[in-house]
């Protein structure tokens, strides 16, 4: 019941967090925003949802996940409703920051859920909870339909979401439970948590998570707009196709937890990065027309990803990020079992900040270059960094372990 109620609550929180992925498009048109301004608008909730993850992780360790999760959801109900009354760009940015608190729910639910399960099942449990990322796809299914029902007005979406958040908070409180033994009697302070940054493993996990989670959030926010601009689809069709990325990227996180439990966090994350490397390389190629002088005269050729091929590649990336998100947290549960809440707060912050910075950079790159696939070029670069860092860091640790073993034999 704890796992079920927490996963439902996280799904609704994530749907709210990704709200601008859909309503941001009519708002962009209404306010005549540039691509960079749209990126900032879409990413603003992600900023606060990321920054609060560290204190929320600490409070979960100290006070318990149930009460922290419940109060967090209640704190977002009014800001979500007020979003429907915003009229100016700065209104959306300010209210979006308060709505973004919903994104901090991940750092509450992860340690809360994990402590109800034995260590050999924590990867699967956290993966099932993390499947609440599918709230991103839920928004893409529900929000366009609500806009159509309201005659094209986007204001109905925050109003419905506000009521949904209130109802979900009540249901969570009724069906969840508290176990005082799960609370850390000597909870880590912010100062002690900062000391964890001296551990190179934490930095590595932050970088991996900024790719698999930050990249997922950024693309979930950006893809509806991408389909509209690149292929000329309507917002309903664009949102449906974008859900082909968001849905597996959320639901299959449970599969990632199971794979990580069975094959280990390192092996799973390594293959996830390689799959993303190949997919982003292909997605980076812009629509290109070029002319070749042949013996029969000039001939023009066109290289472009069709909407079908593009969506299939996105679907593959969605599966890979789902598995990767779970495998990174398997690293944390293996290496920092006593401080899951504290370390997951740091890593979650890094991933969330990636989800905040990337959409703004996507918009800026489009404004500067005029090439929409520049978003995938940027992601391709981040995956390259992950693969290089992962190869050399784990190679160094393996050599060190081998030398220690030889020293013991002699």
Characterise this structure:
The protein has 410 residues and is mostly helical. Helix content is 78%, strand content 3%. Helix 16 runs antiparallel to helix 19. It is globular and about 80 Å long.
Throw out a few tags for this protein.
globular; 2 strands; mainly alpha; 410 residues; two-stranded antiparallel sheet; 19 helices
Report, as a whole number of angstroms, the end-to-end distance.
Answer: 53 Å
Order of helices and strands: HHHHHHHHHHHHHHHHEEHHH
Low-confidence spans: pLDDT under 50, at least 5 residues?
A: 399-403
Can you summarize the main beta sheet? 2 strands, antiparallel
Strand pairing plus helix content: what structural class? Answer: mainly alpha
Strand order of the largest sheet: 1-2
Shape: globular
The count of helical stretches stands at 19
Question: What Rg is obtained from the alpha carbons, in whole angstroms?
Answer: 22 Å
Helical residues, percent: over 70%
Described by its quaternary structure, the protein is single chain
- Which percent range describes the beta-strand content? under 5%
Mean pLDDT: 85
The number of E-state strands comes to 2
Question: What can be said about this structure in brief?
Answer:
The protein is mostly helical. The chain has helices spanning 2-17, 20-31, 35-51, 53-63, 65-82, 89-99, 105-114, 119-130, 135-149, 156-175, 190-195, 200-212, 214-231, 235-251, 253-263, 265-283, 307-335, 340-369, 374-409; strands spanning 288-294, 297-303.
